[in-house]
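Quick question, first post here. What does this chain look like in 3D?
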Amino acid sequence: MTYVDGFAAAVPTANREAYRAHCEASAAVIMECGALKVVECWGDDVPDGKLTSFPMAVKKEPDETVVFSWVVWPDKATRDAGMARMMEDPRMRPDVNPMPFDGKRVIYGGFEVILER
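> Answer (accepted):
Ran it through. Tokens below.
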């Protein structure tokens, strides 16, 4: 069964192109590690909430934009092995491919797909 890793983060709006370049480099490694698809989205219509919201969840500052991303894997076993490989890949080191955002505010999780059309 397909497995998905999902991510949300706040990225300084001025770092949009740096973020895109970071994602491009990371996606190449992720695909080599067995992912079927990598999707990166730049927030366009992400409203503030009163109780919950993406901006609240990532502690978005006024000069930041919420991003939403996901990686599709064939199954959880491939994902687990791929993530382990990815973490060992020198192209993913922070000095080689630095994150142009605060990684402490990233929200992420792995999800078993229960419906796909």
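Residues 16-32 form the longest helix (17 residues).
The beta strands are 3-12, 37-42, 64-73, 107-112.
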